[in-house]
Design brief:
212 residues; alpha/beta; HU Protein, Chain A; four-stranded mixed beta sheet; three-stranded antiparallel beta sheet
Length: 212
């Protein structure tokens, strides 16, 4: 049984419209650990804990090797892993020709679950009683940031850009104490506000923020 909650999110494409949309998210109280996974697999399969542990470590080793060589790896019945990259801290952001191989680093590993895995999980959660509203009521109200505090965060962002030349979402999150997703939402709003002094440059994982 999975617990869930409802969250209201402002339409960031038109923040002044007042429109919101509702999304439903799983409420995670904890994550199954690696040891628990291996114990569960051992109890429900002919594999021993030692064999399961060795298999996991071997797969992880080969996965890292093949991702470094090819950038994307698909595991049957599980999904596809791919490498995300970014410019290193301090690398030039104004001229893309100044970015070279030595200026790049791995920023994250993407994962896209296979259709078979999504279908399997969906089938297990399709019966009555598969979901339960979280105990606090299942509703997270629309986030209304304090305007003064937001202006202070924008000021910090401008100071950071003045020193480093540009800023990434992760930099803003670290600078302000916001979560990565909250920092991303606030920066999406910032580039629409004249008083923020911020502008976006680039797309997707290559997007950075500069002085407007």
């Amino acid at each position: 049984m999975l617990k869930y909650y409802k969250q209201e999110m402002r339409d960031l494409r038109e923040p002044k419209s007042g429109r919101v949309r509702e999304v439903y998210k799983v409420s995670l109280d904890r994550s199954v650990s690696g040891d628990e996974f291996m114990e569960y697999m051992t109890a429900h399969s002919p594999f021993t804990i030692g064999a399961t542990s060795d298999a996991c470590l071997t797969i992880a080793s080969f996965l890292g090797e093949l991702l470094a060589a090819h950038g994307s790896v698909t595991l049957p019945g599980i999904g596809t892993f791919s490498v995300g990259i970014r410019a290193k801290e301090g690398a030039a952001a104004d001229d893309e020709h100044d970015i070279n191989a030595r200026s790049l680093e791995v920023s994250h590993i993407n994962f896209r679950a296979s259709k078979a895995l999504r279908k399997d999980v969906g089938g297990r959660l399709s019966g009555s009683g598969s979901f339960q509203l979280d105990q606090y009521g299942g509703h997270v109200p629309l986030y209304e940031p304090d305007i003064a505090s937001r202006r202070e965060r924008f000021a910090k962002a401008n100071e950071y850009i003045a020193e480093h030349g540009y800023m990434r979402i992760a930099d803003y999150a670290s600078l302000t104490g916001l979560s990565y997703s909250a920092a991303q939402r606030e920066l999406s709003l910032a580039i629409k506000l004249d008083h923020s002094g911020l502008a976006a440059k680039g797309r997707g994982s290559h997007r950075v923020y500069v002085r407007d």
